[in-house]
Amino acid sequence: MKKIYIVCLLLLFTNAIQAQETDIDKIVNWNFKITNKDFKIGDEVELVFSSSIEKGWSLYSSDFKGDVGPQPTVFQFSENGSFELSSDIQPIAPLKKIDKNWGTKVSYFTQKAEFKAKVRLVEHSYDIFGVIKGQVCHLKKGICVPFEKTFQFN
User: Fold this and answer.
1) How far apart are CA 61 and CA 1, in angstroms?
2) What pTM did the predictor assign?
3) Looking at residue 66, what is its pLDDT?
């Protein structure tokens, strides 16, 4: 009987995690593109990370410290020798405010977000990939949800 109870709890927990992941994909929908596909080895190209954000939700930007308060969006690249990161991630026109809950200045996006970074391509058959980690919040519902999304340019 105990085993059945544990199995039921695990199934319930797994379904809750899958539902949360699906909801995150609905809340923030990411797109990835490279600006110059006609390049020579050694050229610098720009990576564009863009997302649409469901109405009512906010995505925190990458240009503030996450020491206290909401977690900024972080881009982690997996190094593989086919590219070199030439610039930090740059958020494009985030909104800014003092967060009343945390008493700190934050930047964030509503409806859509865009981040850019430059990389130097070392190999013609490049493979640029990694993970985006961040947090989205719904002001009216009073909830914040962390997320993790993989990205790839190849």
Assistant:
1) 49
2) 0.80
3) 73
